[in-house]
Specification:
The chain is built from 10 helices and 4 strands, in the order αααββααααββααα. By secondary structure, it is of the alpha+beta class. The protein has a 4-stranded antiparallel β-sheet with strand order 1-2-3-4, with no helix packed on it. It starts with a helix and ends in a 5-residue tail after the last helix.
Length: 394
Amino acid sequence: MKSKVIITAIIIFNLHFSICQAQDIYTPVLTQIEQNSSELRALRQRADAEVAANHTGLAPANPTVEAGHLWGVPSEVGPRIDFAVRQEFDFPTVYVWQRRLAAVRDSSAEYQYRYGRQQLLLAAKQACIRLIYGNALVSLCRADAERARLVAEAYDKMLQQGSATQLESNRARLGLTTAETALATAEMERDRCRAELQSLNGGVPIAFDHSDFPVAALPTDTAIWLSSMLSADPMLATARSESNAAQSSFKLTRSKNLPRWSVGYMGEFVEGNTFHGITFGLSLPIWQNTGRVRQARLAAQATETQTAALRERQLSKRQSQLREALRLSALATQIESSLPIADADLLHRAFLAGELPLTDYLIEQSLLTTAHVRRLATLRDFHILMSELNVHNL
């Protein structure tokens, strides 16, 4: 039994360590965004306001003070002065469950804040991942555009010398235009990601020039990994907290079916006579709370069922994402293994040496660029998926 516990702990530690290593390049950006985000400050203020609201109205009802001055008829009777002070109280268990319900709702407000924070940081991390893709794509397209420019210039000279046809020169110029268009599109996409990061950072520009994806480890024991993800899932934590709140609300409603009571002082002052003393009263909840206990019980059962259903949906979603991540990882490895066979610079040198005609070179270059772009897109999708699977670590 102890050996199983030790093995499980080692697996979780190694997984956490590998995840922390993978997040090293993102941590400075996420830290800066957490400090500068106005949206995150608003989430914190909203949570604090909800906590303050949860503790409002927990005290007993306000005391009642009554006074009266009655003139006697005939006037010889003299006036009568009445005075009363009364304080009403709920049954003591009502205050107990009110405070427990407030504490549960405090937890719910905090879980909602954590969920909002994690979603904000997840959006920032995914923007960084797309920016890595954009930086790498710009670098790839820039190199392609430079090679296409050299080819186009070479064919312009060959056309002037009569060693190339106008059709070949036009084809080389078209290749240059295509490469430059791809570069401009990649730069626009990269700038869009930079703008998104700046927006998440409260409008403050943020530098992130990485063009290589970090290593992201896949779990060796998916059952343990899925269990740890579900236990730390902020959406599930919020749902569990809401379910606990519904249970506390049910018990509070049931407590309100017990009598309310009041205690006070009352005095009647007439000329020559005084009557005063302690008063005591009961309020019997016979009609006002009819059906409320049943409604609260059904609401608690409904939230409990919803929480169980949400857990099943989250488990199914995470399992599907994990399978997709495994496929994307295998696909990226497959593409990576085929790329060294045909390197862009080697292809370009072969063309300059006259080993490839222009048409074959352009086709081979297009296929190679497409493979590189597909590899980058696959890695981008893989890392975005892994960021969702590891959102509870943010």
